[in-house]
Write a structure and sequence with these properties.
With 172 residues, the chain is mainly alpha-helical. The protein is built from five helices and three strands. Helices cover 73% and strands 5% of the residues.
C-alpha cells in the first residue's frame, strides 16, 4: 500500500511537471511568434518599396555592396535585384569565391536609375530598357567628350608651360 501511495505521489508530481513544461513551451512559442513578427515587420520596413536613397550622392562611400545592403538602399527585396540582373545587361555584379554578389557603386547607381524608371515613372521592363540604353549612350557620349576636353586642356597647359619657359629664358 505504501508503494502505491509513493507511485501516486510521483504521478501527481509528474503531472505538475508536465503542466509547467507545457506552459513553458507555450510561453516560449508565444515569445518566438512575437519575435518573428517583429523581425518580419523590420524586414518589411527595410523593403517597403521606399528607397533609403533617392540620388547617387546619397549612396554610402563604399566600393562594393552586398546584395542585402544594395536591396535595403534601394527599397526592394534581393530577389528583385537578381531578376533585374537577368533583364538589364548593364548590371553585372562581381561574385566572391563563395558566389556572393558584390555590387559596385556604379551598379548601385544603375539600379537606382532602373528603380526610378520602373517604380516612379512606371515604365515597363521593355520601356525601361530602351530609356536606360538612351541614358547610357548619352552618358558614354558625355564621358567621351569630357575625355577629349581633358586632352585638349592638357595640350593647352603644356603649350602654356612651354611659352612661360621661353619667356623666362628670354628675360634672362
Amino acid at each position: 500500500m505504501e508503494e502505491r501511495l509513493h507511485v501516486g505521489e510521483f504521478a501527481a508530481a509528474a503531472r505538475v511537471a508536465i503542466g509547467s513544461a507545457e506552459a513553458a513551451v507555450a510561453a516560449d512559442r508565444a515569445h518566438n511568434e512575437e519575435t518573428f513578427d517583429d523581425d518580419l515587420a523590420e524586414t518589411d520596413a527595410a523593403y517597403s518599396g521606399v528607397p533609403r536613397i533617392s540620388s547617387a550622392e546619397e549612396i554610402p562611400d563604399k566600393l562594393y555592396f552586398k546584395i542585402g545592403e544594395a536591396s535595403r538602399l534601394l527599397g526592394v527585396k534581393p530577389h528583385v535585384l537578381r531578376y533585374w540582373e537577368t533583364e538589364f545587361r548593364v548590371v553585372r555584379p562581381s561574385k566572391t569565391t563563395s558566389r556572393q554578389r558584390l555590387y559596385s557603386r556604379r551598379d548601385v547607381e544603375t539600379l537606382l536609375t532602373i528603380r526610378h524608371l520602373l517604380y516612379d515613372e512606371e515604365y515597363t521592363i521593355a520601356g525601361a530598357k530602351k530609356k536606360l540604353r538612351a541614358v547610357m549612350s548619352k552618358q558614354v557620349e558625355m564621358e567621351f567628350r569630357a575625355r577629349e576636353e581633358r586632352r585638349e586642356i592638357s595640350a593647352i597647359a603644356r603649350d602654356l608651360e612651354a611659352h612661360v619657359a621661353a619667356l623666362y629664358a628670354l628675360s634672362k
